[in-house]
Amino acid sequence: DGGITQSPKYLFRKEGQNVTLSCEQNLNHDAMYWYRQDPGQGLRLIYYSQIVNDFQKGDIAEGYSVSREKKESFPLTVTSAQKNPTAFYLCASSFGQGVVVAFFGQGTRLTVV
Amino acid sequence: GENVEQHPSTLSVQEGDSAVIKCTYSDSASNYFPWYKQELGKGPQLIIDIRSNVGEKKDQRIAVTLNKTAKHFSLHITETQPEDSAVYFCADSVANSNSGYALNFGKGTSLLVTP
């Protein structure tokens, strides 16, 4: 089945540790995105990538890092520099040309204790 | 990104009634306006979208209207059913903006349809 897969669904980490969230898509989409969702805050853009080996900061990139070595994969690392990392993280992808018809994964809920 | 204001934040309707959610955008260059439905613990799902060259679009019980002059767009759900209960997000997109083609989202509307 074609789609966008995020793993794991739930993730727990101790404060001060880096953690990497996985996002894979087999839709042949060029563009991929990471959003963060907090209660009552909507979705805020962390990073996006229009093509392989290129990515841009979104509105809240501080404390996060990404890579785009393959078209299918766009992992997000939440570093220890992120002051409030507990949130629901959503990955999306689109064809990246013209209008953004974006499809989302099922999300990863990260809890830092 | 530019702000997208969404109202109301919560909406409760009785089954069979209509529900309307409104969004306002600020960037006149916005040219694409999707609506997403998010069920608890899941990712948002695209339910309908509209482009700036169209004033209205309908898909069964769901419709979206766009007023470019006033910079607002609305989601209309008719004959609501309990399974319509979810959080709905509006968004806009500006091609060639500083955020490339990324979507800017409203803060969401929690819709509850009571039997």
What does this structure look like?
The complex is a heterodimer of chains A (113) and B (115). Chain A is an all-beta fold and 113 residues long. Chain A has strands at 4-7, 10-13, 19-25, 31-37, 43-49, 56-57, 64-66, 76-78, 87-94, 103-104, 108-112. In chain A, strand 5 and strand 6 (56-57) form a beta hairpin. With 115 residues, chain B is an all-beta fold. In chain B, 0% of the residues lie in helices and 55% in strands. In chain B, strand 4 and strand 5 form a beta hairpin. The termini of chain B are far apart. The mean pLDDT of chain B is 92. Chains A and B meet through strand 4, strand 5, strand 9 and strand 10 of A and strand 4, strand 5, strand 9 and strand 10 of B.
- What are the segments of chain A in which pLDDT stays under 50 over at least 5 consecutive residues? none
* Dominant shape of chain B: globular
Number of strands of chain B: 11
DSSP summary, beta strand count of chain A: 11
* Straight-line distance between termini of chain B: 39 Å
Distance between the termini of chain A: 35 Å
Indicate the radius of gyration of chain B in whole angstroms: 14 Å
Short synopsis of the structure:
Chain A has 113 residues and is an all-beta fold. Chain A has no helices and 11 strands.
Secondary structure topology:
The complex is a heterodimer of chains A (113) and B (115).
Chain A: E1 4-7, E2 10-13, E3 19-25, E4 31-37, E5 43-49, E6 56-57, E7 64-66, E8 76-78, E9 87-94, E10 103-104, E11 108-112
Parallel strand pairs in A: 2-11
Antiparallel strand pairs in A: 1-3, 3-8, 4-5, 4-9, 5-6, 7-8, 9-10, 9-11
Chain B: E1 4-7, E2 10-14, E3 19-25, E4 32-38, E5 45-51, E6 56-59, E7 62-67, E8 72-77, E9 86-93, E10 103-105, E11 109-114
